[in-house]
């Protein structure tokens, strides 16, 4: 494995939530503040919460679920804001639940478990000046995401969720976390549930050479005017996916910046659908054994 540089990761400003469709999207049923585990910190353990957004339709069989991991540079907590309701509504329309998770941040002073001890070491090596202070939080985010996936395996049936059909969707630091969980943890000898699909919004995989044949299909979304995480991160990720034989779709937003608003998430309508709809359908085709469409395209913001 070789290290590739890390860009600084910033939070996404609060954005007014728009409907996923031109008309009103069906509101999923939200259950907030579910404790899915506990995370170690220098001052003891802290509870980890998630908000569950479930389709309104009656449960006739366990539903697939997507674990959404918010951005914020591993310093901001925003699992209930920004575009979460829009994404959850689009997934609910496809029969998929959303688990928007809280995870340990730098200010929580997280303490890595023995299994994850080497993870922060490699983050520090990647960019010690910019990222050294946040390395423990980046490792904790990966550990907490795995904890949420393991919670699904234990408690999912109580909420009509199918732990065998899980996806990861992250933005910025959350996308880095999703990518680490899906493709890098096994290189550290860490077992984690395997997602069926991964959605990466302007994230970065901080290690090179960790993507392997048979790992989850990937959707990459990145603006070519992103000044926080370089667009080259998306290009490198696409090249790594192709080299490993991992199916991927890659959408470049011409003029798109960093964050849901600057990216054009609420205004771009690829093929007449919102971005949330289009990408929820990408996930749904992997959850329901459909025929995925691995498109490489550039859209105008």
From TrEMBL:
PROSITE patterns: LIPASE_GDXG_HIS
One Pfam family this sequence matches: Abhydrolase_3
Matching Gene3D superfamilies: alpha/beta hydrolase
Occurrences of domain Alpha/beta hydrolase fold-3 (ranges): 139-201
A GO molecular-function annotation: hydrolase activity
Tagged with keyword Hydrolase: yes
Domain BD-FAE-like: 50-111
Coiled coil: none
Keyword field: Hydrolase
Lineage top rank: taxon: Bacteria
Family in the record: Belongs to the 'GDXG' lipolytic enzyme family.
Record-given protein name: Acetyl esterase
Organism: Tsuneonella dongtanensis
């Amino acid at each position: 494995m070789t290290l590739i540089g890390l860009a600084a990761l910033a939070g996404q400003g609060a954005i007014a939530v728009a409907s996923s469709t031109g008309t009103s999207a069906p509101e999923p049923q939200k259950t907030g503040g579910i404790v899915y585990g506990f995370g170690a910190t220098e001052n003891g353990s802290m509870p980890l919460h998630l908000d569950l957004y479930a389709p309104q339709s009656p449960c006739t069989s366990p539903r697939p679920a997507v674990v959404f991991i918010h951005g914020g540079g591993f310093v901001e907590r925003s699992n209930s804001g920004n575009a979460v309701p829009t994404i959850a509504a689009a997934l609910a329309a496809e029969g998929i639940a959303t688990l928007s998770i809280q995870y340990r941040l730098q200010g929580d002073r997280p303490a890595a478990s023995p299994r994850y001890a080497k993870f922060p070491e490699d983050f520090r090596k990647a960019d010690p000046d910019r990222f050294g202070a946040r390395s423990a939080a980046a490792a904790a985010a990966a550990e907490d995401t795995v904890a949420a996936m393991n919670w699904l395996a234990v408690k999912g049936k109580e909420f009509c969720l199918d732990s065998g059909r899980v996806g990861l969707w992250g933005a910025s630091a959350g996308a880095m976390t999703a990518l680490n969980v899906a493709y890098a943890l096994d290189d550290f000898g860490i077992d984690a549930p395997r997602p069926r699909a991964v959605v990466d919004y302007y994230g970065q995989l901080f290690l090179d050479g960790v993507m392997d044949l048979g790992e989850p299909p990937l959707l990459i979304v990145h603006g070519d005017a992103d000044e926080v995480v370089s667009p080259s991160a998306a290009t490198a990720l696409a090249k790594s996916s192709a080299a490993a034989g991992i199916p991927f779709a890659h959408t470049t937003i011409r003029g798109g910046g960093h964050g849901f608003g600057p990216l054009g998430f609420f205004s771009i309508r690829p093929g007449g659908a919102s971005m949330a709809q289009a990408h929820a359908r990408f996930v749904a085709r992997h959850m329901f054994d459909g025929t995925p469409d691995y498109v490489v395209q550039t859209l105008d913001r």
